[in-house]
Design goal:
By secondary structure, the protein is α+β, with helices and mostly antiparallel strands. Helix content is 52%, strand content 12%.
Length: 91
């Protein structure tokens, strides 16, 4: 079923809140406080420069900016757990 623009916007806002744990209004307030208005500025602010095992994700979607390749259980180490915790805490 095709969504109206209003339904799509409502779904996007609900997904921000569900996926980050923060109300959409909190994200808007943060971007206003930092005087960011353009999409590229906002994405850049929310991103961390990839280095070492942390790679740029490519073009998955706007919500995914980085990736880590894990080939086996040894790849899930303290460094990776630290990155995941930092990302979760920042969300």
């Amino acid at each position: 079923m095709t969504k109206t623009p209003e339904e799509a916007t409502a779904s996007m806002i609900a997904n921000y809140e569900k996926n980050t744990g923060k109300p959409f209004a909190a994200w808007v307030a943060l971007m206003k406080k930092e005087k960011l208005a353009k999409h590229g500025e906002i994405v850049k602010r929310l991103s961390v420069a990839p280095k070492g095992r942390l790679e740029a994700s490519g073009s998955f979607n706007a919500m995914v900016t980085h990736r880590v390749r894990v080939a086996n259980p040894k790849g899930i180490d303290a460094e990776l757990v630290g990155w995941l915790k930092a990302a979760y805490d920042a969300a």
